[in-house]
Every structure is written in structure tokens, then in C-alpha cells.
Amino acid sequence: MDMEGNGGDILRFDGYDQARRIGQGGMATVWKVRQISLDRWVAIKVLSPDQCTSDEEIDRFQSEARVAARMNHPGIVQVYDAFYRNDRFCFVMEYIDGYTVASWIANRGYIPQDACLFVSAGVASALAYAWERQRLIHCDIKPDNIMIDADGSVKVTDFGLSKSMFTLQARRMAAEESFVFGTPAYISPEQAMGSEELFIQTDMYSLGATLYHMCTGRRLFHDQDLAAMMEAQVNLQDADPFDLNAQLSPCFCDFLERLLCKNPADRYDSWSDVIDEIENLRQNRPLKLGEINPATTRSTLRRSPMRDAARARFLATVQTSASAPAAASPASLSSASTHASRPVASVLSALSASDAPEAPPAPVAPHAPGARRLGALCSSPAFKAAAAAAAILAATGVIAWIGLCQHRASIQRTAQAAEIGMMEIENHLRIKPEDYSKAIARYHDLLNPLEDSAHAALRQRISERCEALRKSRERHVENVLNALRAETRPYIEERQFARAAEIVRTYNGVLAEETKKDRAQMADQLNDQARRFR
């Protein structure tokens, strides 16, 4: 396999072919290649030469790679091999046919809360496994290192590499060398200060910073340069996500606030606690540990008074719901029947007062005069009419109550179907993030059954998601058209208008169908110019 190195040289590895570079950064390039022996696609990450400058560093990378290779979890990108050749250190990894969370954010602007919880649950499960099985932490959780596979599953990549790179950073910083590893927008305060004593709470902070970027569409301290951003992670606070995204729940923001505590001891004690809280949020339940006290615990998030007010309303609603009696119990059915027949009971009381004996002191024998008078009362037309009215009213009350229960159940079923539909659309967009038209059409289908006034809030949520998706489509379409304009500009400058028109017309990449009309107009204009310059 031949690969271009950072300096333009060629790297050759036996056993691999069909190489194609799929990513490049300051520290490494990533290649998609075919492993000939097993006839499978793999990814090879090739570190730049300055990352491995001593035998000690090479040994450390290989040791960390061996630890990472022992992990077998569906949420962790598998490491197959690691070797040092041609002055490069290389990781051979599972190839993921999907996209990163970073590209998802770039395409969508921001990620809805339920999708954020879906991603965070996958990441937390993978990190919990790595810690429990290998006592391994990641040290560089960020959107670029979280992938969504073609089947919609969440994958964490760069295990083994990240810990080694951070150790290298800390040692070079201690030697006052100019070297920085880690992404300032997601790095924990203890990492930013160069501490080598890192535990799972370090990854929790980075997960919180990643979720902040996902749900708001902007990084922590986005307006700072890189050096100032790292210092801000240690000392400063950023805006409450509740103020930046009106669709977020206050408890979700409380969850992020704890993840982003400055002191690692103030974050969660274990990944199981994090996973429990994520499940509470997904079920719309209060957090098990509640919110932190800002007076005694400092977080990178500056809490908004609006979040406190929204939390108080939510908790009050939960408490009210918990104390309300069950509507469909047998006791409530009996109560409903009794309540419905109360007017008839009043009629019977009036009849008894006029026709029955006054307060008999003892039970009446069957043939006593009082018994005859009671029998006469029961057989009287007035009593029979009252009894019939009582039966009708009681039955009417029960029927009305059953009808109400059925109506409420229908409303609930419709809402549940819409919620499931929204999750299915989000899952579809994870796999095909550019399939805007189908997703928008499915959102409109969800709106049609939601005519009841009880569905007003749900209709609003779906409408907002549909509108956000429509705006994302507009931005993405414009990006594709701008890319085509940039690609054809050299041909236009050389007056090769027909060639430029052909490129635009035959484009079959992302959003080809969505841009078909605009591309046709562009191609027509270019062909007109071609005819004028003949």
C-alpha cells in the first residue's frame, strides 16, 4: 500500500491495497484501505513523524494499543493492530461506514435533546466498559471522536491513542516545550492544567462539553482563541444552554451542569450514575441526584434564573401527578356510579319521608303492618319510576366515565405514536443525514392526526423540528451549490462554459435530487454563455 505522508513521501505497507485518504489533521492522516488477507475494509491512522521521537514513546503507544485491542464492545471502534514503520506510528482499526457527530452538527446546526441523550447513552456505556474492564480512560472525547455507524449505533474511536497522546503532552509541557494535545473546547480543567492524575471524571467533563456543543450548536467559549479557551475551562463560566435552546428541559441542563463541574470530585462518582441519569431524562423523570448548589459547587455553566423557574414548575407537575388518584380503579368506578345516582337518592328520600313509617325502633316482622306499608311503597308507581330513573342515571354516569377514559386513552395512544414516529425520523436522519425531503414529509404525516387541543404542545414540537430541518436543508443546498460554483470557477475563467455546465448538470453527490432545479438553471445559464462566446 502506498500512502502520501505529511511531507509528500510515500509509505508502503505489505498486506493492504486500494488506499484512499479519508481524513487529515495536524497530528495524523486517516486512510481507508483493504486488508488483503481477510478481504475487509479497515482504517489506518498514521501519526505525523514528530509524534514519535523516542523509543520510549514508541513503546508507550504500542502498550496502549495492546490494551485497547483487548476491548470488545459494540460502542468502541475495534483496534486490530499497531506498528511503527518508516518513521510513522500506525493504528489499524475497524472501518466505520458512517459519519461523525461533528459532521452531524455541521449539517444540522444543533442536535435535538432526545438525540443528544441517545448519543450520550452510547458513549457512557462504551466508557463504562473501558474503565471497568481495562481501567482505561479516553482523554479526548469530542464530536470528531464519536461516530454514528450505518446501522445507527454510536461508536467511540481513538481509544488507546488518546491516552498516550495526552501523556506525551503532559511530559512535553513539563519540559516547557511547545506542544498541545487535546481540543480546548472539550478539554477538562485538570487536563488544561497538565495534570497526569486523570480518572473517569475527565471523560465526563468532555462528554458534557460535547453535549453542550450538540444541543446549542456552539462550542464552550466559542469566541475565545485556543489558549484563552483552555484557561477559560479552568476559571470561567459560559452561557446556560437553557437560554440558548428553548427546547431543552431544565433537568437536562442540570445534568450538563454537573458533568461540567470544575472540580472532578463534584461530577458523578461512576458511569453507572451517569447512565441512570440519562435514563431518567429519557423517561422525563427528575434527576436522581438533582441539581448542584451553585453557592458551594462551581460549574463551567452559569445557571440561568429561567432554568430554576422551569425546574420548579416541572417538579411541581411531577409531584401533582404522583399524588393524583388512579382514574381507572374499581373504587373510582364505584364512586362514579354513586356520584351519578345522587339525584335519584334524593327522590327516594323524599318518598320515604312521606309514605314510610317514621324511624321504626326495631326490625319489622314480615307480616307486621310496617312491612305491608313498605311493600306497598316499593310497588307504588312513584317508587318504580324513581328506581328506573336511578338505574338510567347510574348507567349514564358509568357510560360517560367510560367514554371519557376511552377518549383520554385515544389521545395518549396518538401522542405515543407521534413520539415513536419522531424517534424513527431521528434514527433515519442519523443514518442518512441528507435525506431532508423524506424526513420533512414524515413530520407532516405525524401532524395530521394531532387535531385534539391536548396535542397542541406536541404539534408545536413537531412543527419546530420540521422548520429546523427545512432551514438545515436550505443551508445544505446552498453549501452544495457554492461547492459547485467553486469547482466550475476555473473552467468559467477559461471560458470553458460547456464543460462547467456539464459538471453542474451531471452532479450526483449529496442532495443531487434536492438541487436538481437549481443546477438546471445554473447549467442553462452556462450554456447560454457558451453560445455567446462561440
Quick gist of this model?
The chain is of the alpha+beta class and 534 residues long. The protein contains 19 helices and ten strands.
Overall radius of gyration: 34 Å
- In percent terms, what proportion of residues is strand? 5-15%
> What is the assigned CATH homologous superfamily of the largest domain?
Transferase(Phosphotransferase) domain 1
Low-confidence stretches: 5-9, 170-181, 327-372
Summarize the biggest pleated sheet: 5 strands, antiparallel
Helix content: 55-70%
Taking the alpha carbons of the first and last residues, their distance comes to 47 Å
* Second rung of CATH, namely the architecture of the largest domain: Orthogonal Bundle
What is the chain-wise order of helices and strands?
EEEEEHEEEHHEEHHHHHHHHHHHHHHHH
SS-derived structural category: alpha+beta
Class of the largest domain, according to the CATH hierarchy? Mainly Alpha
CATH topology of the largest domain, anyone? Transferase(Phosphotransferase), domain 1
How are the secondary structure elements laid out?
Elements: E1 2-4, E2 10-12, E3 16-24, E4 28-35, E5 40-47, H1 55-69, E6 79-85, E7 88-94, E8 99-100, H2 101-108, H3 113-134, E9 146-148, E10 154-156, H4 161-174, H5 189-192, H6 200-216, H7 226-235, H8 241-244, H9 250-259, H10 271-282, H11 305-323, H12 330-340, H13 342-355, H14 369-379, H15 381-431, H16 436-447, H17 456-493, H18 497-505, H19 516-532
Antiparallel strand pairs: 1-2, 3-4, 4-5, 5-7, 6-7, 8-9, 9-10
Helix pairs in contact: 1-4, 3-6, 3-10, 6-9, 12-15, 13-15, 15-16, 16-17, 17-18, 18-19
